[in-house]
Amino acid sequence: MATHTARPARNFRRAAAGAAILALLAVQGCASVSGETTGSVQRAGGPTVAAMPASQLQGAVSTYGAAYEKSPKDKATGLSYAAVLQMAGRNDQSLAVMQQVAIAHPKDRDVLSAYGKALAAAGNLPKALETVRRAQTPDQPDWGLLSAEGAILDQMGQSDQARVLYRKALEIRPNESTVLSNLGMSYVLTNDLKSAEQYLRQAAQLPGGDSRVRQNLALVVGLQGRFDEAKQIASAELPADQASANVAYLQQMLSQQNTWSMLKDKDKRG
User: Which residue windows are transmembrane per the record (predicted)?
Assistant: First the structure.
């Protein structure tokens, strides 16, 4: 399989974009943008976990942890607990939970897909790819597994192949916000911010588009220098001070060593 090779200017933008993603998500206390899906775990009667501040997220970890302790072999409980652990940045623990769930449900597609996501979050990309591919059935392909495989390939630098899989997933599940969001973030990684914005806007307007989709859209808009617009998008769900902090952090990062000017100059020359 061919691996995407970037020019130096693209490498610079990719590094800056990746740093901005991590910086923005660290401020808002959300999960990684990579993985099988950008969807969220939701508690009954409460906000999506992705929209929670860090303090509430820790409460969700405790709640799901207690439920998992009572029923460690329950599929839904294990998946939810692993997901919130990833959102809290506890990737090794999330992987440990998913290993146990996979043992209890060795042929379940949802479980294997989530196990692959946990492996990827923990940094074991080859094993993650193997796990997701093993769960797939070519005669009846699962759109979620296609999206999961694409997200892993994106992390391995194989974005062209990842996008083929995202589009196959969309053929099966048209207008799926999680797949469109993954596709949008794939374009961030190869510096095509206009395409990234297009897909993230589409994802954000769909019923399944959650807080993380909109925050990723705010990020992409901010990376293009439209900070007021980015703040407006971020403020739609986050408290005003938190949205302002996110955008201010992004501005600060891009202003260091004249980063934004360097990006614009390299785009003109590229």
Answer: none
Supply the pLDDT for residue 39: 35
Tokens of residue 253, six digits: 């990062």
| First vs last C-alpha separation in the chain | 26
Domain extents in the chain: 8-32+191-270, 53-174
CA–CA gap between residue 204 and residue 181 (Å, rounded): 8
SS (H, E, C) 132-198: HHHHCCCCCCCHHHHHHHHHHHHHCCCHHHHHHHHHHHHHHCCCCHHHHHHHHHHHHHCCCHHHHHH
Say what the pLDDT of residue 46 is.
Answer: 42
pLDDT of the residue at 23? 41
Q: For the chain, which ranges sit under pLDDT 70?
A: 1-55, 253-270
Indicate the SS3 state at residue 42.
strand
pLDDT tens per residue, range 121-150: 899 999 999 999 999 988 999 999 999 999
CATH of 53-174, one of 3.30.1360.120, 3.40.50.150, 1.10.357.10, 1.25.40.10: 1.25.40.10
Q: What is the pTM of this model?
A: 0.73
Alpha carbons 62 and 234: distance in angstroms, whole number = 27
Q: Which of 181, 191, 242 is nearest to 216 (CA)?
A: 181
